[in-house]
Amino acid sequence: MEKKEQKNLKVLPQREQLVKELTDQVKEDLKNYFKDRDYGVIAVTREDALRAFIVKTTNLCEIARLRHKLSPMATAVLGRALTGAILLTSLLKHGTNQRVLLRIEGDGPIGLVVAEANAKGEVRGFVQNPNVETFIKEENGRKKFDIAKAVGKGTLTVVKDLGFGTPYESSVPLVSGEIAQDIAYYLLKSEQIPSAVAIGVLVGEDGKVEAAGGFLAQPLPGASESAVEKLEKNVTSLPPVSTLIKEGKRPEEIAELIFKGFTTELLALKELSFRCRCSKEVAKGGIVAMPEEEIKSLIQEGGASVKCKFCGEEYHFSKEELEEILKEKQQGNN
């Protein structure tokens, strides 16, 4: 037993300085601080080497819906991808500019699905077909979106930019098209990390996002078999994560359900938001890269608009601005 505790402490160095037990007072403090904002908690167990990252993403999924004018089906798919990308930031160094990009290339009607998140909790993304029709399936007597039918068969690619030169890229086949299971498969095959992943996006009859979130639960090196079995039992007995969030459960309370039978401790907190890195300067770079003849054509048309794929923001360039861009380009070529 003594040996086991030492092994766990290696996984979580200076544990007593990093963690905080999830008491009623801590839960009340978190509720008062975050209120209805999106956020995530990284939790661990005191007794064994288990970790979970639980997120609420309701607001950022609704912002994505509004920005991209998404159909209900597209909202559910992109919401899952955005949430999944945030969960994958657990592979990054907390609070840095490191980024992870999730790219789903299926043969379904929604087409390409892309989500990118950084270690600070900022996420953005898009789907190729924002107006995809709704597909419904029945599961355990409940009707739900058929995400797999919208996505189809294909590949899941994860690109990690750790800021050390060439980003690391790895692809796996889509095993379900439901996104959560595909991320779990990626973590097992590419990162050698067995994980339980759950993601849910509840879309109301009016098309608005009513609840969204997810979790990623993992045994750390040194976890006992009995702890892993208990974790698996807890996770499989949980209702859909979107149902829990709709009922008012907060990330730290979901952590307690995942770690039922253990003492839950908080390791880190992360506020989450839909935020894009685009700007008018970035959009200008796209115009500068065009052939001169195309820029001249835009000038003749009296102006141009550049739309960011990731967030739907439009940047307008007047005739005068385009003339200045053309002048800069010509001077640079001389």
Automatic annotation (TrEMBL):
Single GO biological process annotation from the record: protein refolding
Q: List the disulfide bonds.
A: 276-278, 308-311
Q: Work out whether the entry's keyword set contains Cytoplasm.
A: yes
| Chief place of localization | cytoplasm
Name where it's found.
Cytoplasm
Q: What InterPro entries does the entry give?
A: Heat_shock_Hsp33 (IPR000397), Heat_shock_Hsp33_C (IPR016154), Heat_shock_Hsp33_N (IPR016153)
**Which post-translational modifications are recorded for this protein?**
Under oxidizing conditions two disulfide bonds are formed involving the reactive cysteines. Under reducing conditions zinc is bound to the reactive cysteines and the protein is inactive.
Keywords, alphabetical: Chaperone, Cytoplasm, Disulfide bond, Redox-active center, Zinc
What molecular functions are annotated in GO for this chain? protein folding chaperone; unfolded protein binding
Q: Which GO terms describe its cellular component?
A: cytoplasm
Residues folding into a coiled coil are none
Q: Which residues cross the membrane?
A: none
Q: Which SUPFAM superfamilies match?
A: Hsp33 domain, HSP33 redox switch-like
**NCBIfam families, sorted:** PRK00114.1
Tell me which HAMAP family the record gives. Answer: HslO
Q: Which family does it belong to?
A: Belongs to the HSP33 family.
Q: What does this protein do?
A: Redox regulated molecular chaperone. Protects both thermally unfolding and oxidatively damaged proteins from irreversible aggregation. Plays an important role in the bacterial defense system toward oxidative stress.
Among PANTHER family, the record links this protein to: 33 KDA CHAPERONIN
State the name under which the record lists this protein: 33 kDa chaperonin
User: Which organism's genome codes for this protein?
Assistant: Thermovibrio ammonificans (strain DSM 15698 / JCM 12110 / HB-1)
The major lineage groups are: Bacteria, Pseudomonadati, Aquificota, Aquificia, Desulfurobacteriales
